[in-house]
């Protein structure tokens, strides 16, 4: 049986990508990274992927509408035989057309316990709201904003003296842990969807 081929989409430093890649390298994840893509050619995460010898590409967004851009990205993923797409700090809202090309095969990690605090600056939202616990969520991507079915979540306590930076660091450590766990779960295929609930089988 061939290994699941992952396509990683990133926009920045790629710390979640690096955690996934290290787990692939050391055998914790029984997958392979088939393709790494960035919407920012100068993204540090893309440079890191190149040093790891992974196949990479990027496309400038300037002058391209969202649907046309996403069509190009989806074509690149398919050309490289990607089975599951993993968003790792990819700072673009995917079009419905893109999502339809990979139904229930796009994963995202978000720094809150969804459905609380979707969108940008989730850690800041948590601090401003005064919650005592926040965390991170791995979910399937649909055509809404951080609204797809949830695979895994990890709680993180909010401390009285937390800043956005300190809270983000503790959440990120949990992101690195549960993202690979969720990918392994998908790779094994031992789950089913019951409405919005992702159930182990």
List keywords for this structure.
single chain; 201 residues; alpha/beta; Rossmann fold; 2 domains; 7-stranded mixed β-sheet; two-stranded antiparallel ribbon; 6 helices; globular
Question: How would you describe this structure to a colleague?
Answer:
This protein is of the alpha/beta class and 201 residues long. It has two domains: 1-103, Formyl transferase, N-terminal domain (Rossmann fold, 3-Layer(aba) Sandwich), CATH 3.40.50.170; 109-201, Formyl transferase, N-terminal domain (Rossmann fold, 3-Layer(aba) Sandwich), CATH 3.40.50.170. It is built from six helices and nine strands; from the N terminus they run βαβαβαβαβαββαββ. It has helices at residues 15-25, 44-51, 66-79, 96-101, 122-129, 164-188; strands at 4-10, 31-38, 56-58, 84-87, 106-110, 133-140, 150-157, 191-194, 197-200. A seven-stranded mixed sheet has the order 3-2-1-4-5-6-7. Strand 8 and strand 9 (197-200) form a beta hairpin. The longest helix is centred in the last third of the chain and has 25 residues, at 164-188. The protein is globular and about 50 Å long. The model has no long low-confidence stretch (mean pLDDT 95).
Describe the protein's topology:
Elements: E1 4-10, H1 15-25, E2 31-38, H2 44-51, E3 56-58, H3 66-79, E4 84-87, H4 96-101, E5 106-110, H5 122-129, E6 133-140, E7 150-157, H6 164-188, E8 191-194, E9 197-200
Parallel strand pairs: 1-2, 1-4, 2-3, 4-5
Antiparallel strand pairs: 5-6, 6-7, 8-9
Helix pairs in contact: 1-6
